[in-house]
Design a protein that fits this description.
The protein is of the alpha/beta class and about 525 residues long. About 30% of the residues lie in helices and about 25% in strands. It has a 9-stranded mixed sheet with strand order 2-1-11-10-12-13-14-15-16, with helices on both faces. Helix 9 packs across helix 10 (about 255-260) and helix 10 packs across helix 11 (about 285-295). It is globular, with a radius of gyration of 23 Å.
Length: about 525
């Protein structure tokens, strides 16, 4: 299975159809194929060898789609980077992956100046913006147009297609290795689950670096459709793009959908082209869903649950279960049923399947399961057991095969669709001289689903403020990881028999009365 075969098919069956739309630029699938083959050759000329990681730090654009296919066409592996990371977080990932080429746009050309001195192996920075090329960087358009098209390198199957960094349980991000097969089968599955038609027009409003949006690269291309991109999500820009470019489908995490619904511009916008809104990262509240159905009467809704390690979808709740009355109404709180390409089961602490209705860890197996974590064989062995990916999410399966999320086994928070591992935040807090120890948990948030909350014990005789600790954290980790609230404690945290902090006990008061202990 080759991801690049999707591009060849699109150029074959729809050569003059519009492949990408970004601001004032449009290109056909025939043009896209030529540009991808040229960019692949340019990256090879810069030193990219089979399997080499090529990083991209960029807002959404048509060039992001070209990068996706060109790196693979040339035999390399993608490495899209989180645009909300600090320079030190970016440098850690680049060093860890051994990336020698970094592509940046206008928004991050300044960041590249801070990142490059921290990454000894970084040989080339390519500027893909539209202003003057910064000194010391290669120009994207110049190297692309100045290189002849090269043949597809022919990598596929279990060959590495990309490394995607997620939060780490030890305080350092982990690189999830995904293969060509992972992306290919996920694209086919996504196109099938969401009932995509040939020539679909999809709006990339969510950040393209995120696996949830990146999934659509293959699915839309598989259907020879059109990728419409806006640089980054705002409610008004999203509504403008819907009215101007007439997309039929879009993916919005619940907080994004809620912001669109709250926009005064919605009432003045023609959204009649939309047929499907997919959402994920967290279940939608009934209040938001009811409002969305009212405001988008001709749109069907679909929920997807998964994680980067599953490239990324495990279960889907289709539109016919997004109802408040009738026999299917009881499934709205669920995360849906397994997709057609994977198996899901609920297991106990010995990884044995347990009866329907009992709560245990959700495990997933299938061709969408990752290859493992980059340079972390021990963590890989803990996560993939007999081919099953242990998701770290706790839940149960009902008699109809629907998965209901209840809690998390892993110490992770999902805030606004972004994964935050408590250890990363605790490491940052621990670097402040006033902090003796801390425990970071997720608490309910109407806006973000979950909010990062820190419980902090200070050294005896030392004082500081919540604001000072928040400012300190912002210098070390991305803003979305920083505590939104901080509570000072004087008594020791409750400990387990193994002397680990019992975060389940710390979380209980905040989640009391809730049907599940995650959002």
């Amino acid at each position: 299975m080759q991801i690049t075969s999707m591009l060849r098919r699109a150029a074959q069956v729809n050569p003059n159809g519009i492949a990408t739309i970004f601001q004032q630029r449009k290109q056909s699938w025939g043009q896209m194929l030529d540009r991808v083959a040229r960019l692949a050759g340019a990256l090879q000329a810069l030193g990219m060898k089979p399997g080499d990681r090529v990083a991209l730090l960029s807002l959404n654009s048509d060039r992001f789609v070209e990068y996706y296919f060109a790196v693979l066409w040339g035999g390399g592996a993608m490495m899209p980077m989180n645009i909300r990371w600090t320079a030190s977080e970016c440098a850690y990932a680049l060093n860890d992956a051994g990336a020698e080429i970094l592509i940046v746009d206008d928004a991050f050309k300044g960041s590249a100046e801070d990142i490059k001195p921290q990454v000894a192996g970084l040989k080339t920075v390519v500027y893909c913006g539209d202003d003057d090329t910064p000194r010391g960087m290669a120009n994207y358009e110049a190297i692309l147009t100045g290189t002849a098209p090269v043949p597809d390198a022919g990598r596929g199957g279990d060959d590495l297609a990309g490394v995607f960094y997620t939060g780490g349980t030890t305080g350092f991000p982990k690189g999830v290795m995904l293969s060509h097969t992972n992306f290919y089968v996920s694209a086919v599955s996504n196109a099938h689950e969401i009932n995509m038609e040939e020539g679909v027009v999809y709006l990339h409003a969510a950040p393209m670096f995120h696996i949830a949006d990146l999934l659509w690269f293959g699915a839309v291309t598989l259907m020879a459709g059109t990728h419409v991109a806006i640089p980054m999500f705002t409610p008004d820009d999203t509504l403008d793009a819907i009215e101007r470019h007439r997309p039929s489908q879009v993916m919005l995490v619940p907080v994004m959908l809620q912001m669109v619904l709250q926009s005064e511009k919605l009432a003045q916008t023609d959204v009649s082209s939309l047929q499907k809104i997919a959402y994920g990262a967290s279940p939608i509240t009934q209040a938001v869903l009811a409002q969305a159905i009212e405001k988008f009467p001709n749109v069907s809704f679909l929920q997807a649950f998964g994680q980067t390690e599953l490239s990324p979808i495990a279960t889907v709740l289709p539109d016919d279960y997004h109802v408040f009355e009738g026999p299917k109404a009881g499934k709205l709180r669920s995360a849906g049923r397994p997709t057609r390409i994977c198996e899901v089961r609920i297991v106990d602490e010995q990884n044995k399947e347990i009866p329907r209705g009992d709560v245990g860890q959700i495990a997933v197996k299938g061709p969408n399961a990752m290859l493992g974590y980059w340079n972390k064989p021990d963590v890989t062995a803990e996560t993939i057991i007999d081919g099953w990916v242990m998701t770290g999410d706790a839940g149960y399966m009902d008699e109809d095969g629907f998965i209901f999320l209840m809690d998390r086994v892993k110490d992770m928070i999902v805030s606004g669709g972004e994964n935050v591992y408590s250890a990363e935040v605790e490491n940052a807090l621990g670097q402040h001289p006033a902090v003796a120890t801390s425990a970071v948990i997720g608490i309910p948030s109407e806006q973000w689903g979950e909010s990062v909350h820190a419980l902090v014990i200070l050294h005896e005789g030392v004082t500081t403020s919540a604001e000072e600790l928040q400012t300190h954290c912002h210098t070390l980790i991305a803003g979305y990881k920083c505590p939104r609230s901080i509570e000072f404690r004087t008594k020791p945290f409750p400990l387990s028999g193994a002397n680990k902090v019992l975060k389940t006990e710390l979380r209980k008061p905040f989640w009391e009365g809730k049907q599940r202990h995650i959002s």
